[in-house]
Design a protein that fits this description.
138 residues, alpha+beta, five-stranded mixed β-sheet, 5 helices, hydrolase, identical protein binding, CMP_dCMP_dom
Length: 138
């Protein structure tokens, strides 16, 4: 991943974070996805009084991507105001695995400028993926 692309994703994720709807936790998260076509989509977390209906920034970005007709993640960045770079929750890791590959770059960052580069495979080893479904049919 080129340095310019990485910086653009981080910038978009930080901008998305500012749009978060977090009246309960006050914990704003932003995410930005680059697709295999080079397009970029953003998402922020959106809370709900019924906490189970809250949607994370990463999933919001994925849903934006799919709503715009794309289905492959080339890279993703996630940003929050945390003491260390933020990491996606388990549900988001599974959703990201649905649309990415094991070696898809994931940039974890915080608003203080710390960042860590990892991959979807490192975040969710042994992910349950589409190919596993065909094994069940045999």
């Amino acid at each position: 991943m080129a340095h310019e692309e990485e910086e653009k994703l981080l910038q978009l994720a930080e901008q998305a974070r500012l749009k978060a709807y977090v009246p309960y936790s006050h914990f704003a998260v932003g995410a930005a996805i680059q697709t295999d076509h080079g397009d970029m989509f953003t998402g922020c977390n959106i809370e709900n009084a019924s906490y189970g209906l809250t949607n994370c920034a990463e999933r919001t970005a994925v849903f934006q991507m799919v709503a715009h007709g794309q289905q492959r993640i080339r890279a993703i960045a996630v940003v929050a105001d945390t003491s260390r770079p933020i990491s996606p929750c388990g549900a988001c890791r599974q959703v990201l695995a649905e649309f990415g590959e094991e070696n898809t770059p994931v940039i974890l960052a915080n608003v203080q400028g710390q960042k860590m580069l990892t991959t979807l495979g490192e975040l969710l080893p042994y992910a349950f993926v589409k190919g596993d479904m065909s094994e069940l049919e045999q």
